């Protein structure tokens, strides 16, 4: 259940007598109130994407459903009304960016994966503009494998080996090149470029042997600087074509990094200290280790062994004058000694035990010199909402509290211990996994077995606290015979919103911590929090009244805004501003600037690639103004931190899936539902002068009946003057261009020429708003061969006008008082295609869909029910139904069902 915070509040349950019964501390009360105000004023957002599959192939669609919640309320967010979803390649470059409309914190869409993409480890990143203020650590950022068999001729397999030469690290890569059938490319020349941290450090040539292999070696003399990268290999194929492959180099050594983390933050003399250990190999994955803890005299004081993904813990009671270290033994038999964190002579230890399914037990331990010296406060908060706060005397060296988990929300709880001066002296994270805090999403009428192409007709039933609830759910159905699940490594709505969004860094196998709710899993999760603890809320900012750096405001609608100024930069109030667009029909609105010269066209609705013209005039209708648009800079792409999910041999890892999907894509191609890109032979182009090289002419730049260049426009005041009498068959009447053949060609009257300005259609009477000195070229299209591509719009002829500064920029000025602008609009939402095999109908074409069914928006009614139906494919196997969802209070749903198709 969702709990409201009470700040300041006293929730003392099961606490021993060391705690006082009442909290009366005005300065501390003020601090907690400050936290509450901070949280309400600067709420944050979390986002999760439910994907239809865990991996994909070139030719696939990536279908997704977005869930965005407000951390302050825990409910679906109404802060932002737009979400950015990006597909990022291995070069950390954005291949596709979608802008999705958000309504009630949800949205959905898809990426098409064209055959112009190559195989690799891609990322899907999602965020709102408001989330950018908190940093990229909070973004949804998932690495996915995308294979390529359907449009691929060269397949590689790479093995790396490592060795040391003095202080340098030697990397040896053996790369095999083969065709789609596994036959090696022998005696083929390969050019390679080894790049580390995006710097080219080794280039060379090699020739494949009889097995299609080459070997590359590199000596890394700066291992601390160059830790990972890639090999770009270009192979010359027998038909004189070339293929380039980018092969990840995840690490330059097999070194293992081992770190130690004292519970609460510090090791303190004379107190039993739990210390967590985390060992990570150079590929970013946990590495199992074992070892001894010894003091400076070589005396063994404890032993330890990692229990899950290189993580574990042990206890040490540091003694005065002693220094401690760990002798770590690795799986290859080698050993290394690491120093433990420095021991403090005085301080506090905050110990938290959350292994009990019913309660969290908190212990405060203090060194002897601190007994009776100060008053302590303990606060437990989640996402800035305080759920537990109390005061404790320091009359005893150990103080214990017990907090029922049912009174805490699911997710990461941050415990902070404050001293008498209200400064934090120890912190600890704990995780609460309240299964009663979730929606139970069940299905009715689901049979254990079905036939191929049989209709699956089921009902979704959603309940919370044994009562039906309304919610929005997404459902993905796949055949595990082709899409093999990896349950421990899945990203889902629970791992995203309860764990990953509050814990920075890479989390290996995140769903492992949600598959079982037992003591072993709880201990593994506790080790994760101790070794990877990180805070959304920084108490020092609250204490010092430091507000967050707000650079990006929430997007509540699509808008075009800016400022009208004089050429000297002085704001011009009461200026008339007009907004034009001809995309999808002509559109025009006007407004006036305010006292600061600002204007705002708000609550617009337009799709991506829509182009606008913004026109400004002074209060006296003068054109001599500057228009400065409000343009939010794009989000930079940070380096991929999910190093453990990177696969060196992507196609090989997805071999079974690629084989099945290849047949599916070939079938779609036969039906004309999927197009291949044509690969042309390489030809050398000799540049020919093109007087309209930057134009948007659909026939191709320069393919026109007549071209007027910038030199021809130098002595004209208006474009009407420039065109009049210069082009045969073109006349100007009242500033509108016509072809003489169209003056009386229509019963409805004269047909003007269509004007296309920097790729955007504008009305014919707009011609003289364009200053001749700002024009690069005018292409005149008169003949049917040149106008046909413009359809009915080109019936009266076309003028393609290209400005000197209008070549494809998002916003570009081409004349005084006028600016073109192509802002990011909403992505058009497509519907997942699901065939219907009704009785009496026959369809002999094979149905090989890898995603059997996808529905991003199943809404349950007041009885908590929603009907779902779809048809199975032609492939037998175990079908997996994954349901995720949310209700208006922010309760989450995640359920998986299976059935057999025979």
Quick overview of this protein structure:
8% of the residues lie in helices and 40% in strands.
Question: Can you walk me through this structure?
Answer:
The protein is mainly beta. Among the domains are: 155-236, Sandwich (Immunoglobulin-like); 558-629, Immunoglobulin-like, CATH 2.60.40. It is built from 9 helices and 55 strands. The protein is globular, with a radius of gyration of 33 Å. It comes from Pedobacter africanus. Residues 711-798 form the TonB-dependent receptor plug domain.
Describe the SSE topology.
Layout: H1 26-41, E1 45-51, E2 56-57, E3 61-70, E4 82-88, E5 94-101, E6 106-112, E7 120-127, E8 140-147, E9 155-165, E10 168-178, E11 189-196, E12 199-207, E13 213-220, E14 229-236, E15 242-249, E16 256-262, E17 267-268, E18 273-281, E19 290-295, E20 300-305, E21 311-316, E22 324-329, E23 335-339, E24 343-344, E25 348-353, E26 359-366, E27 376-382, E28 385-392, E29 398-404, E30 411-418, E31 424-432, E32 440-444, E33 449-450, E34 455-464, E35 467-468, E36 471-479, H2 493-499, H3 512-515, H4 519-531, H5 539-543, E37 558-565, E38 576-581, E39 587-592, E40 598-604, E41 612-617, E42 626-629, H6 650-653, H7 655-670, E43 706-709, H8 719-723, E44 730-733, E45 736-739, E46 754-757, E47 760-762, E48 775-781, H9 784-787, E49 798-803, E50 811-815, E51 818-821, E52 851-859, E53 865-871, E54 877-887, E55 892-901
């Amino acid at each position: 259940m969702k709990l409201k915070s009470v700040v300041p509040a006293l929730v003392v349950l099961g606490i021993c007598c060391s705690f006082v019964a009442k909290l009366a501390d005005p300065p501390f009360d003020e601090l907690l109130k400050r936290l509450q105000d901070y949280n309400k004023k600067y709420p944050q957002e979390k986002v999760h994407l439910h994907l239809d599959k865990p991996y994909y192939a070139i030719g696939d669609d990536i279908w997704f459903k977005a869930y965005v919640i407000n951390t302050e309320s825990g409910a679906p967010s109404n802060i932002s009304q737009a979400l950015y979803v990006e597909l990022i390649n291995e070069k950390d470059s954005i291949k596709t960016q979608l802008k999705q409309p958000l309504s009630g914190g949800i949205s959905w869409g898809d990426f098409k994966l064209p055959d112009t993409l190559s195989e690799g480890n891609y990322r899907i990143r999602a965020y709102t503009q408001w989330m950018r203020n908190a940093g990229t650590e909070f973004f949804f950022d998932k690495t996915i494998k995308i294979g390529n068999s359907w449009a691929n001729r060269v397949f590689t397999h790479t093995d790396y080996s490592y060795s040391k030469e003095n202080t340098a690290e030697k990397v040896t890569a053996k790369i095999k090149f083969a065709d789609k059938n596994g036959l090696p490319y022998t005696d083929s020349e390969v050019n390679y470029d080894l790049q580390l941290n995006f710097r080219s450090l080794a280039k060379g040539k090699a020739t494949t042997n009889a097995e299609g292999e080459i070997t590359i070696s590199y000596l890394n003399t700066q291992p601390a600087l160059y830790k990972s990268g890639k090999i770009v290999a270009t192979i010359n194929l027998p038909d004189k074509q070339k293929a380039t492959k980018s092969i990840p180099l995840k690490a330059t050594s097999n070194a293992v990094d081992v770190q130690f983390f004292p519970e609460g933050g510090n090791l303190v003399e004379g107190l039993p200290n739990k210390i967590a250990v985390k060992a990570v190999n150079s590929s970013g994955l946990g590495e199992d280790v074992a070892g001894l803890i010894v003091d400076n005299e070589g005396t063994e004081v404890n032993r330890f062994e990692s229990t899950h993904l290189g993580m574990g813990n042990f206890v040490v009671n540091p003694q005065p004058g002693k220094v401690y270290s760990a002798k770590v033994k690795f799986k290859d038999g080698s050993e290394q000694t690491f120093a433990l964190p420095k021991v403090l002579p005085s301080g506090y230890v905050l110990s938290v035990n959350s292994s009990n399914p019913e309660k969290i037990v908190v212990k405060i331990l203090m060194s002897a010199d601190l007994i009776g010296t100060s008053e302590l406060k303990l606060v437990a908060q989640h996402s800035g909402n305080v759920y537990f706060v109390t005061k404790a005397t320091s009359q005893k060296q150990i103080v214990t509290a017990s907090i029922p988990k049912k009174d805490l929300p699911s997710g990461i709880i941050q415990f902070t211990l404050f001293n008498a001066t209200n400064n934090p002296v120890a912190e600890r994270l704990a995780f609460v996994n309240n299964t009663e805090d979730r929606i139970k999403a069940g299905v009715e009428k689901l049979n254990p077995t079905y036939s191929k192409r049989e209709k699956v007709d089921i009902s979704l039933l959603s309940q919370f606290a044994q009562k039906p609830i309304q919610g929005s759910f997404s459902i993905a159905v796949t055949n595990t015979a082709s899409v093999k699940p990896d349950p421990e490594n899945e990203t889902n709505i629970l791992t995203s919103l309860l764990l990953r969004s509050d814990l920075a860094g890479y989390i290996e196998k995140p769903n492992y911590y949600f598959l079982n709710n037992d003591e072993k899993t709880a201990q593994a999760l506790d080790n994760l929090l101790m070794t990877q603890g990180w805070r959304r809320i920084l108490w020092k900012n609250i204490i010092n009244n430091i507000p967050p750096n707000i650079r990006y405001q929430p997007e509540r609608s699509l808008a075009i805004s800016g400022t009208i100024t004089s050429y000297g930069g002085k704001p011009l109030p009461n200026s008339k501003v007009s907004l034009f667009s001809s995309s999808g029909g002509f559109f025009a609105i006007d407004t006036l600037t305010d006292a600061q010269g600002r204007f705002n066209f708000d609550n617009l609705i337009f799709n991506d690639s829509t182009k606008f013209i913004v026109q400004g005039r002074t209060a006296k209708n003068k054109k001599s103004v500057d228009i400065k648009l409000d343009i939010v800079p794009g989000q930079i792409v940070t380096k991929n931190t999910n190093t453990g999910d990177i696969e060196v041999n992507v196609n090989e890892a997805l071999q079974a899936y690629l084989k099945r999907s290849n047949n599916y894509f070939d079938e779609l191609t036969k039906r004309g539902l999927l197009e291949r890109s044509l690969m042309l032979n390489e030809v050398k182009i000799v540049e020919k002068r093109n007087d309209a090289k930057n134009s948007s002419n659909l026939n191709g730049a320069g393919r026109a009946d007549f071209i007027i260049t910038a030199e021809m426009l130098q002595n004209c005041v208006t474009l009407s003057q420039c065109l009049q009498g210069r082009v045969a068959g073109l006349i100007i009447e009242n500033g509108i261009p016509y072809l003489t053949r169209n003056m009386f060609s229509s019963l409805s009257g004269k047909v003007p020429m269509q004007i296309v300005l920097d790729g955007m259609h504008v009305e014919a009477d707009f011609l003289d708003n364009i200053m001749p000195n700002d024009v690069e070229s005018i292409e005149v299209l008169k003949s049917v061969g040149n106008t046909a591509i413009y359809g009915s719009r080109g019936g009266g002829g076309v003028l393609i006008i290209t400005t000197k500064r209008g070549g494809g920029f998002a916003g570009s000025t081409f004349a005084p008082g006028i600016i073109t602008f192509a802002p990011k609009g909403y992505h058009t939402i497509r519907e997942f295609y699901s065939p219907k095999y009704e009785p009496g109908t026959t369809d002999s074409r094979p149905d090989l869909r890898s995603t059997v069914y996808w529905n991003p928006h199943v809404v349950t009614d007041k009885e908590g029910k929603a009907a779902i139906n779809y048809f199975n494919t032609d492939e037998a196997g175990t079908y997996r139904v994954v349901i995720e969802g949310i209700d208006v209070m922010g309760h989450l749903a995640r359920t998986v069902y299976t059935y057999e198709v025979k």
